[in-house]
Amino acid sequence: MSPIRSILAVVLLAAFVVPPGPVAAAAAVTPGPVCDHQPVANVTAPAGAVTVDAAVPGDLYRKSQESPPGTTFWLPPGTHKLAADPFGQVIPKDGNVYLGAPGAVLDGQGINRAAFTQQAKDVVIRGLTIQNFVAPQDQGVVNHDSGEHWIIENTTVQNNKGAGIMAGARQELRHSCLRNNGQYGMNAYRSDSTITALIVEGNEIVGNNTDDWETRSPGCGCSGGIKFWVVDKADVRGNWIHHNHGAGLWADTDNNDFLIEHNLIEDNDAEALFYEISYNLVFRDNVLRRNSLVAGKRRADKGDNFPVASVYLSESGGEPRVPGRTYLVDIYDNTFEDNWSGITAWENADRFCNSPANTSINTCTKLVADRTQCSAPGIASPPLYDDCRWKTQLVMVHDNTFRFDPARVGCTNGNCGKMALLSNWGTYPSWSPYQGKVIQDAITHDQDNYWYSNAYYGPWKFVAGDTSRILTAEQWQSTPWNQDNCASFDGVMPHC
After folding, report:
1. Average pLDDT over residues 365-374
2. Does Signal appear among the keywords (predicted)?
3. Residue 239 covered by a domain
4. For residue 66, which of 21, 43, 317, 408 sits 20 to 30 Å off, Cα-Cα?
5. Whole-model pTM?
6. Backbone phi, then psi, for 190, in 5-degree steps?
């Protein structure tokens, strides 16, 4: 690294890594089995609770309707059913609490679309198993209408169509099992983009997207363990996220201020984390194993050399003008083991606000209120030239351990084991000011993206600028790329 770039890196780290104070560290939650390991609780009805009769279909619905807000309902062991109608459901009132005894199951019978609906606030669900509901695509079973501040704890949501859970503002999902749901374990989406302050802690999120939505609807971007859309502030910690048929975690479109820490993310068919056209992320102290092996092999078998990653940053970066606990994408103190590749930081030169190439239709960056402003001739000049782009900028990748053995990954053609910082040659639309290598140069040289102080084990390759430029570690560290100052390779300590 040149002296000027070294000074710049130090200045940036001082200014951005801790702005204005460190992101608070919460008590660590150790990820591990939750499914079939729920605590024994709610064995008897608490004082004042309304007992639901499992032998009477629809009893839970009727008693919810007849009782005042703030009522506690106790579901004894057994299979509880709703009316045998697609729209048989439970409509909670503000502050209702639903407690399931061990063995209490709310079963949708393959008939009911949703279990808990409408927009009551402060609803609590604990100890239930909720299964066999048939929510339509992009809809959910629990909190179907994204009510505010629902607390879902020690609950199993499994074998449903659509999303097991929808999210509302200030929702807390803790120590729950989201297993084998047809589309998502949880879909954090509201049409009015008002979801904020999510907590996802200590859960097991496994086997979701059983209906293989990316094959059924190519390019839909509608699958995975959890999908986040326009969420402002989320804490995702201490979860075991594994064997999902797609990405484990996918944040898509104007998400901001995510803290993802202390998770075990492994054996997902696609990315452990896909962070797309979003802002301001701390990703720390996670363990990532064997992610993207299915997606990577599928792409490589087609002769596609794009670096399929375990952490994929797509048009996402830090932005000081968007308030958050950081204004970086800060990735540190993680362990990566035998994923298809490492981290890919990518920016599509043709994807920007108001571009026909933007698949998130009718959305714009958080810096431009009216997307129609992002058009010729104004987009060719500041501030729109910068503000109409979701920039992959202010990305810091440091103090991570990357281990890779191609034999264990099952990679035979060498199209794996990559670390990448790149863009495409801009071509579209005709009025785009980002044509040619403009964005390739920007992402690699001008947008303050730095790898440093990482430890590598195995035959890693590095991609810079475009997919065709494969670098050795020495080239990656040298001019003009100047990346990974103070990195070690196969245990050889760096000189820095």
Report:
1. 96
2. yes
3. yes
4. 43
5. 0.94
6. -135, 140
